[in-house]
Amino acid sequence: MTIEGGYRKYSEISFLRGFAITTVIFMHLFQMFVKWGDIPQWLSYASSLGGTGGHVFVFCSGFGLYLSYLHRPVRVGEFLKNRFLKIYIPYIIVVLIVYLLTRYGDKGELFRRMLSHIFLYKMFFERYVISFGMQFWFISTIIQLYLLFPLLCRLRDRTSLRTLVATGLLISMAWWILMEATGLGEYRIWGSFCFQYLWEFTLGMAAAEYLMNRESIRIPIWLLLTAAAVGLGLQAIMAMQGGWAAAFNDIPSLIGYGSAALLLYTFGKRIIRPLFLKIDTISYEWFLVHTIVIARFYRYFGSQIQSEALKAALATACSLVVAWIYAKLIRRLMKLLKV
Phi, psi (5° rounding) for residue 320? Predict the structure, then answer.
């Protein structure tokens, strides 16, 4: 596999994002809605890997953010403001829609939840962090990483790429140890704090600079196969072991999952690659709307469809259609706001 370097839109990164968001959404679908009837057993195992897509998404975020910054090194504040608004505006619109559609529960509490999203302090309150959507914890993590980005850029200016990656890895490992030793990792606000994923973010930054300064790099297929097998195998073993082993399984998870995804990119030129590249164009919008759309589908149509497989397929298709429409609308709004 050969990856061309320089400043360009990396289809490899776009594919990874599209593939990652798809597996995350399937994981949420199977965790929350599917009753195991006529669903194949292998899908149960496959869906359990979906959470690893979040690690790939963090890596891709670090890659894309730093690549853009290297190409156009404007003031960090201006750069981050534009990137922040592109994340915040679509997100907060979905939150407001969910708030307006919610007819049950204490109205005062619902209002407080909504405010926690608007002013972003939900990241400090366990009861608010996944309110209005189990996926919304990730927005807090990404915003935290965005706030760290200027400091990471300064660190890179004064040190080497190796030091940048090593610093991110050491901070993350220290955080994993702290979470396991104290048990705080059981709480979403601690277990999903930015330090948990800092090593992936800095690794993405380093990969962006490394590729930008080279014509191309070649990754042997045998190396991807080995990394996929060993990484996914270790992830499974460490997850089953639990405790301290599970605390450190993010590393084999990213390596195994990322390598497997790149193999799909390499060998799936006709169908798989175009499919996930297309999904990437609406990946963020799909991430934002999928739980509310799927929940509504199951609520209104679930009892009318007997086949669990058909029900899951139709719910997923509906969420994709809504995401596509929302993406069209939000991009028009962004143009009007000149964001």
Answer: -65, -40
